[in-house]
Amino acid sequence: MTLARLSNNWVPSLMDKFFEGNMMDWNSNNYAGANSTLPAVNVRENDNEYYIDVAAPGLKKGDFNVSYDNGRLSISSEQKAEHEEKDGEKVTRREFSYQAFQRSFSVPENTVNADKIVAKYDNGILHVTLPKREEAKPKPAREIKIS
User: HSE-up of 116 (CA within 13 Å, CB side)?
Assistant: First the structure.
């Protein structure tokens, strides 16, 4: 069976992105521009640490859940905006506000010191730092003498 992309105008843009991308590589696609609530993410690495930066303006640090389990880092948030009605108030229009997301990242096996992972929220960006274990850090080249 072959999946075919529909050409009708009513197909949502997220589905367009689905059919254009690699179906097996969801985490590498940036759906932030596809009418989705998934935040954009930057992933960086140096010899000592991995860094994940999540763009999530308007949230508070208490809105996030960050967990690490068996080589998988998960970041999620859920935010609801509820408005109370006052006595005698007539509501003619109310638009509900609910936003939630979850992003997960696979980390190479046995490379992260899980006890030292830190997360910090600053100016609309959640910064997660995953320190590498000593065994996972690159070692300098060793010269081998020829006998």
Answer: 12
Mean confidence (pLDDT) of the chain: 76
Residue 32: which of 99, 121, 122 has the closest Cα? Answer: 99
Q: Using an 8 Å Cβ cutoff, are 122 and 87 in contact?
A: no
Residue ranges for the chain with pLDDT beneath 70: 1-37, 81-87, 94-97
Distance CA 90, CA 92 (A): 6
CATH of 34-82+92-136, one of 3.30.450.20, 3.40.190.170, 3.40.50.720, 2.60.40.790: 2.60.40.790
**In angstroms, rounded to a whole number, what is the distance separating the alpha carbons of residues 73 and 62?**
18
- CB crowding 82-106: b at 16 or more within 10 Å, else e: eeeeeeeeeeeeeeeeeeebebebe
Amino acid making up residue 82:
E
